[in-house]
């Protein structure tokens, strides 16, 4: 948990996700303990390279936010800066999706509209925009 929290802190520009490493570790612990939905360990793999944790995806059974679909939800996906654009996010997303597909045909995530690199990746992998008004269609 501490290693994932440390990676979470390093993966974002200072202050974007958490203001301190201790805060990032506490946020990851909160995730593991269900504060953002029932944590799906089997759909939350990590990637280790040469003994260093370099990428992680965190998935819950259902996000706690009203404006999200009722399905497994990726609450975080992050990669160490030196390992980006190496396909690690693709591997993690595929593993998370594979883990939930036995019980649910959908998996969702949220992305900032200005993060064009992430949006391009998600669209390439088959993710599509979701709106509450489209539920059940």
- Summed up, the domain count is 1
- At CATH level 2, the architecture is 3-Layer(aba) Sandwich
Average pLDDT across residues? 91
Q: What value does the Rg take, in angstroms? A: 15 Å
Structural class: alpha+beta
CATH fold-level name? Aminopeptidase
N-end to C-end Cα span? 38 Å
CATH top level class name: Alpha Beta
Report strand order across the widest sheet: 1-2-3-4
* H/E series: HHEEEHEH
The portion of residues forming beta strands comes to 15-25%
Question: Notable features of this structure?
Answer:
137 residues, alpha+beta, Aminopeptidase, four-stranded mixed β-sheet, 4 helices, 4 strands, 32% helix, 16% strand
Summarize the structure in words:
This protein has 137 residues and is α+β, with helices and mostly antiparallel strands. It has one domain (37-134): Aminopeptidase, CATH 3.40.630. Helix content is 32%, strand content 16%. It has four helices and four strands, in the order ααβββαβα. The chain has helices spanning 2-11, 21-32, 88-100, 116-124, and strands at residues 46-49, 52-60, 73-79, 108-109. Strands 1-2-3-4 form a four-stranded mixed sheet. The relative contact order is 0.14.
């Amino acid at each position: 948990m501490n290693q994932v929290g440390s990676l979470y802190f390093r993966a974002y520009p200072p202050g974007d996700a958490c203001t301190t490493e201790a805060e990032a570790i506490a946020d990851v612990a909160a995730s593991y303990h269900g504060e953002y939905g029932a944590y799906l360990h089997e759909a939350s793999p990590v990637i280790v390279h040469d003994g260093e944790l370099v990428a992680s995806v965190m998935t819950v059974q259902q996000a706690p936010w009203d404006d999200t679909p009722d399905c497994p939800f990726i609450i975080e996906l992050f990669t160490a800066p030196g390992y980006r654009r190496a396909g690690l996010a693709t591997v993690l997303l595929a593993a998370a999706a594979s883990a939930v597909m036995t019980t649910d045909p959908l998996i969702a995530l949220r992305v900032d509209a200005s993060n064009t690199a992430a949006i391009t990746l998600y669209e390439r992998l088959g993710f599509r925009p979701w709106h509450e008004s489209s539920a059940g269609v």
